[in-house]
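Structure in, sequence out. Go:
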């Protein structure tokens, strides 16, 4: 799901599309997808999308479906064609094209995977069985440290491995890279899945226990039922130590510098020297520990919990972590819990879709080169860059016009805008995959080597100059991100396509869709986290106390606004947890509106499809958030995600004055806010 994001240390990167891909000659708004029986002032999402919602069924292999999924599906089909062309080209051994083809075809060769059974995992199982003491345990755990995809793209600062690594600019000294460590180790999405006493969560825990039992049986572990209970108990104790989503999103709480010698005293239990040596981290003297309480608690567990329980835990996670490149019985059992129970999907995606994901993960920028060459012409890059220029100009004008902001703070805000590096479409320099070994017919080994390659690529950054041109997203990803520490934005080519970005429709519609995305990402440099980083990327609050007080008061209004939304009886949205993204939605949409007016030289936009320019703008925004989500996935999102669910994102319009006359919104309607109650942060 598209999760536009601010990524402080990790990519936290959201929008979404119509159930039918746009056709030539019908590139404007989907009028048939609206529900004009609903008053826009009562439910703007339903007004803009109600017809689409009524006629659209979530596919059986999805937990949710919407615009974003349509664009992603189209992109995946294009990428699959590029990959298959690479496979058919018989490129020279060792070339990027050959690696792309061999990686994909190896994953698709189910017969070969089935024939090997669990043989590829035997070295891992043997290494686990060989753990004889606590030092051995520390050494083995060190081999599991990864800068994996969960770390890069999660929205809850969490990794499936025991701990996760991300190498990024140090928050106190932005001229150097530091190794950041964060909590992990849970098989379920977040601590509340273990600790919430509600009946619904208890049922999920029972199904998770059944899943762990089934996986241990597949691994040949005797007395699997009893041993699965001890694994669940261990993970529950880990969850108790974990920081919650809101705390994990607090940069000031996360910026904890520990010297190597500190770990033994601050987080006793684990043999940290053995752990770091095994993880290839013998050189760094200082680490940033994002959730110190979790490190203290989990480290203690490595000394308190029996080695046999740890071995069972590691066996389960070794099998679960490679489920997609193991025999069908393992993959199906994995889907039974993660697909059906947690997402509500009835069946898995077609295998080629997973094959594209696996190949993107291993060789993303190599595929990206081919993708942009075919699907992102220079003219589209130039058009997007012009929109970026207009959005930045609009943001600059909004800052200049703020009556409450002091000249001192404004000067620092302008400095951030002046140094903002905006990447459009693809990176300035492509990643080198020469050292990545891909072997035809070895799906399991390719996954292992690709993961290790990415980890070692991150380790090599330590001690090197900061590279502000580095991207954290592939060009073929439908998403966008702000990197406050680097004061940089990434807008991948795949999000710069219809219906977000379309040269064949009125430009105002693009401003309502992709323009709001661009504004959203720019605003992350100035939100509740972005305001903590100065133009150099240093953690240095550049607000005066008076300015910060005004900002926080406006933010508190937004927290209350979103706390009031109740998707399910008794389950409200979490305004504090989603605050940064909600601020970015409000500020981004406001800047996009100004930029659209700026692009017309303050002239009125032409009426299109019977709609005024302002109506086109706001409806484009609302239709870009089309999505239907199954209850299990929606509940998971509310608990774990830093983004508001898609159906509630269009409510942002109630904070913009221009929306009210555009749709004749009156007092007494559900979304109506008195002018004084409309949140205006920028």
């Amino acid at each position: 799901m598209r999760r536009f994001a601010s990524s402080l240390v990790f990519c936290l990167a959201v929008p979404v599309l119509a159930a039918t891909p746009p056709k030539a000659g019908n590139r404007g708004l989907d009028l048939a997808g609206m529900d004009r029986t609903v008053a826009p002032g009562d439910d703007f999402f339903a007004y803009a999308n109600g017809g689409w919602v009524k006629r659209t069924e979530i596919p059986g292999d999805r937990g949710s479906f919407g615009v974003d999924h349509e664009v992603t599906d189209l992109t995946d089909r294009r990428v699959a064609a590029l990959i298959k062309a690479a496979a058919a080209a018989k490129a020279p051994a060792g070339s990027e094209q050959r690696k792309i083809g061999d990686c994909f075809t190896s994953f698709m060769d189910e017969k070969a995977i089935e024939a090997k059974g669990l043989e590829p995992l035997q070295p891992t199982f043997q290494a686990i069985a060989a753990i004889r003491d606590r030092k051995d345990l520390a050494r083995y755990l060190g081999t599991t440290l990864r800068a994996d995809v969960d770390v890069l793209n999660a929205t809850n600062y969490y990794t499936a491995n025991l701990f996760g690594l991300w190498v990024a600019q140090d928050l106190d000294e932005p001229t150097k890279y530091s190794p950041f460590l964060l909590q992990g180790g849970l098989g379920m999405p977040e601590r509340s899945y273990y600790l919430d006493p509600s009946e619904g969560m208890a049922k999920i825990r029972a199904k998770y226990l059944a899943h762990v039992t089934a996986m241990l049986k597949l691994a040949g572990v005797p007395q699997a039922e009893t041993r699965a209970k001890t694994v669940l108990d261990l993970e529950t104790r880990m969850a108790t130590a974990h920081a919650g989503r809101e705390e994990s999103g607090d940069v000031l709480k996360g910026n904890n510098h520990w010297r190597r010698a500190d770990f033994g005293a601050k987080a006793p239990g684990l043999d940290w020297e053995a752990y770091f040596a095994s993880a290839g981290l013998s050189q760094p003297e200082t680490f940033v520990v994002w959730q110190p309480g979790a490190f203290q608690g989990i480290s203690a567990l490595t000394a308190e919990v029996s080695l046999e329980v740890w071995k069972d835990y590691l066996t389960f996670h070794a099998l679960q972590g490679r489920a997609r490149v193991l025999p069908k019985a393992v993959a199906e059992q994995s889907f039974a819990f993660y697909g059906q129970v947690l997402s509500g999907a009835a069946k898995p995606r077609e295998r080629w879709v997973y094959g594209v994901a696996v190949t993107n993960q291993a060789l993303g920028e190599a595929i990206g080169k081919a993708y942009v060459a075919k699907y992102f012409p220079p003219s589209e890059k130039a058009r997007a860059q012009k929109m970026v220029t207009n959005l930045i100009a609009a943001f600059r004008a909004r800052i200049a016009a703020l009556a409450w902001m002091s000249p001192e703070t404004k000067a620092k805000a302008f400095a951030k805008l002046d140094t903002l590096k905006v990447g459009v479409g693809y990176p300035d320099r492509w990643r080198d995959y020469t050292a990545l070994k891909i072997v035809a017919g070895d799906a399991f080994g390719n996954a292992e080597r690709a993961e290790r390659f990415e980890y070692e690529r991150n380790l090599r950054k330590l001690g090197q100059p900061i590279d502000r041109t580095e991207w954290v997203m592939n060009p073929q990803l439908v998403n966008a991100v702000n990197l406050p520490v680097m004061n940089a934005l990434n807008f991948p080519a795949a999000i710069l396509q219809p219906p977000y970005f379309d040269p064949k429709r009125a430009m105002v519609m693009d401003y309502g869709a992709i323009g709001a995305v661009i504004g959203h990402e720019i605003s992350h440099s100035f939100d509740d986290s972005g305001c903590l980083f100065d133009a150099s990327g240093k953690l240095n609050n550049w607000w005066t106390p008076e300015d910060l007080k005004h900002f926080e008061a406006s933010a508190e209004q937004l927290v209350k606004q979103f706390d009031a939304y109740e998707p399910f009886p008794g389950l409200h949205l979490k305004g504090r947890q989603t605050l940064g993204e909600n601020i970015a939605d409000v500020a981004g949409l406001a800047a996009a509106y100004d930029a659209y007016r700026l692009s017309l030289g303050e002239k009125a936009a032409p009426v299109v499809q019977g709609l005024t320019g302002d109506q086109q703008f706001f409806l484009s925004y609302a239709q870009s958030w089309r999505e239907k989500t199954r209850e299990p996935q929606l509940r998971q999102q509310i608990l774990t995600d830093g983004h508001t669910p898609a159906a509630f994102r269009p409510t942002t319009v109630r904070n913009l004055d221009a929306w009210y006359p555009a749709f004749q919104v009156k007092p007494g309607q559900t979304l109506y806010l008195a002018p004084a109650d409309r949140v205006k942060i920028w």
